Structure formats: C-alpha cells, structure tokens
Amino acid sequence: MSASDNSNSIQQEFAPLKNDRLLRALRFETIDTTPVWMMRQAGRYLPEYKATRAEAGDFMSLCKDTDRATEVTLQPLRRYDLDAAILFSDILTIPDAMGLGLYFETGEGPKFKHPIRTQADLDRLPLLEPNDSLDYVMRAVTSIRKALNGQVPLFGFSGSPWTLATYMIEGGSSKDYRYTKGFLYSNPEFLHQLLDKLATAVIDYLDAQVVAGAQILQIFDSWGGALGHRQFIDFSHAYNKRIVAELKVRHPQIPVVLFTKGGGLWLDVQADSEANVLGLDWTMPIDRARQVLNESQRQLTKQYKKIQSSKAIQGNLDPATLYGSPATIRAEVNAMLDSAYAGGEKTGYIANLGHGITQWVNPDNAKVFIDAVHDYKI
Ligand code: 1CP
Questions:
Q1: Which branch of life, at top level (predicted)?
Q2: How many domains does the chain have?
C-alpha cells in the first residue's frame, strides 16, 4: 500500500470536517466569509496557556505531554471563532531529536548544547525516524485531531531547512547569523550537506504528521528573509521546493502553506513550487502580491507547457496592530481585506497575522481581529 493510500484510510478514521472554509478558500472555491487563524495562536499571551505550561513544568515537557499539548491547542479555539487549529509543538523538535540538546534559558529563548560547527558534528547527525524519536509529536497530532472532532482543520508544521540550520549552527536564536552565513560564503558545501539532511528529515516528519492526522501543512521559513536574492534561491527555496514536491507525491490531497518571513520580494521565486498557499508578512501589500502571482502563473504555465494553478495568499496583518485600539484593529483589518479582494476574486485568501502573535497582546484584541475578519462582507 502506498503512503498516500495509508494516509487516506487514516484520515477517514476521524470525524468529517464541519468547517471547511479555510480549505475551500485555498482551492479558490466560494466562501461565506474569510477564513482566519493566527500564527502562534497558542502561547504566552493567554493566561490559560501560562497556567497549563506551569503545570507541565517547562516548554518541552508541555510539548511531550499529549493531554496538555492537546489542551493548549484547543484553548484559543474556545475563546475565538478560529477557522483552523495548529499542532502545539515547535520547529526545534527536529534538531532536538537529532541530538543537539535543546534547552530554554529563561528570558533568552531556545539554545542548543551541541551546535553544528564541524564536519564531524555534521557526520554524527542521525537520520530522523519521526515515529521513533518524535513519536510524542505524532501522538499529539492524533489526540488533537480526535479532540477537534471535525470542528476545524488541523495544521501540522515544520521549520524550513534554512531556518532550522540557523538555529543548529548558531546554537540558538541570532540577529546576524554569523556562523551560518560564514559557512554560506566560506564553505557552502558544508551548509548544503546540512540542508540536504534537513530536507529529508522535514519530508519524513511532515509525512508522519499527515499519517497521524494533520489535514494541512505549513512550512515556516521564518528567517529566509535574511538571505540575499541568489542565496535565498539556492539555500532556502531549492530545499522548500523539493520538500513540497515530495509531499505532493506522498499526499497529493494535503494542502501546503509556505511562509517565508521577508519573502515578499520573492513571490515569483516561491511560485515555482507546488505549495498551494504563500504566506506574507506585513511588508508586502496583498493586492500587489496577487498581481505578481498572477503574472508568475502565466510565466510558469509557458515555461512548463502545462497549466499551473494559482497560489492562494495567507497573511498579513502586522502583529503589532494588536497593541492598538479595537477601532484601529478593525480599520486595519478592513484595509487588509480590501487589498486581498481588490482584484475582484472573492476567494483564494486566508486572513492571518504577518508573523506570530506576541506575548504582550491583550487577548481581547485578538478577538477583535478575528471577529473583524468574519464581519467583513465579501
Ligand atoms: O515560554 C514558552 O512557553 C515558549 C514559547 C514558545 C511557544 C508558545 C516556543 C519557544 N514555541 C512555542 C510554540 C510554537 N512554536 C508553535 C505552536 C503552535 C501555535 O502556533 O500555536 C509554533 C507553530 C512554533 C513555531 C516556531 N518556533 C517558529 C516558527 C514560527 C515563527 O514565529 O517564525 C520559530 C522560529 C520557533 C522557534 C522558537 N521556539 C520558541 C521560541 C521563543 C522561538 C523563537 C526564538 C527566536 O525568535 O529565535
């Protein structure tokens, strides 16, 4: 039995989807109103999240605790009329499973005990067995999917190879990517070896999430925007394109969202992939993105001599908008939706923030954002 047959039979074990607005929008089908969710919708801005995390002890224990990971995934859905859920986990589970020793220092974000700096470090990296070292993620996916009971579709996710590589080489978060870019310009072959291993890992990881019950996938290329133009194509896009192509072989029915923060300049580049949706941050106007994507569709159709389907767009409210008043949030949402539908087509768009919601947002303002999207008449 092929992997896709397997996933289809697994998917049928779960309750049918009651709210398919998000899936309809990305297929350019008619919708009653605009679907909306928020990147990092489970997190520290919610007091109930902080309480559950305190019970679990620390962040990774929360990720590994099936019941609590399910609980925090569902918390934002109890407060808000969201059109999707996203697995509670982290992009850094892959490097952790590869033995880099992830830990969180209070107030300092993620850190790795064993960053990748030498050929020996790279050669030691094991092949990822998602159902073995990351079985806690798969258990969470299945548990969340069951608990949702068809309420909304469930996103699985992964970091992109480039974004994961920055954490693995730097040993944590970075502002300048000193070591990663150092390799890029002094020993590109080394970086390509790591990215190649990560691409294989991401494919198997996302494949396993679909088999466990994920209905849509997002690849977070959070730091792709740090690259130069040609470097983005070679060190980020090429690997994302390969990942999406392989996922489409294994699971043709599962939509894929590709989100590159700072990737607005490269929509034409990213259009040359089988991703169904491209995520935008707030620097790129949605109407302009639509024009670029329509032109790319025409060019790629010519290039491949085969009709290419249009990419839906996801995004792109500046998360800092949620520090504003309810009236400001509503005005900004209306302007965003005017821009999304300016071309006249009233579908093909998923509302979201342009990056993750921050811990300083008042939860009531997130509700204003979500309700304003649904209140907008399309
Ligand atoms: O203190 C805490 O409770 C930990 C904060 C936290 C949370 C809530 C971290 C550590 N990760 C998460 C959850 C998380 N991370 C989700 C959950 C699902 C949801 O969206 O509700 C997701 C999708 C992620 C993905 C993630 N982790 C990304 C990609 C998205 C993005 O924001 O660009 C990245 C870059 C990370 C790394 C990471 N993990 C945690 C932190 C604080 C960071 C960022 C550090 C940095 O800025 O470099």
A1: Bacteria
A2: 1
In tens, the pLDDT along 105-144 reads 877 899 999 999 999 999 999 999 999 999 999 999 999 9
Q: Which two tokens stand for residue 197?
A: 């291993």
pTM, two decimals, is: 0.96
Say which CATH number the domain at 93 has.
3.20.20.210
Q: Is 90 an annotated catalytic residue?
A: yes
| Domain carrying residue 43 | 3-375
Q: Is the pLDDT of residue 190 over 90?
A: yes
The answer to whether the CB of 160 falls within 8 A of the CB of 206 is: no
Q: Cβ(91) to ligand 1 under 6 A?
A: yes
What is the DSSP secondary-structure string of 36-82?
B--TT-SSTTSHHHHHHHHHH-SHHHHHH-HHHHHHHHHHHHHHS--
Tell me which residue has tokens 């049928």. Answer: 12
**Whether the CB of 50 sits within 6 Å of ligand 1:** no
**pLDDT tops 50 at residue 328:** yes
**Cβ(222) – ligand 1 distance below 6 Å:** yes
On the question of pLDDT at 201 being above 90, the answer is yes
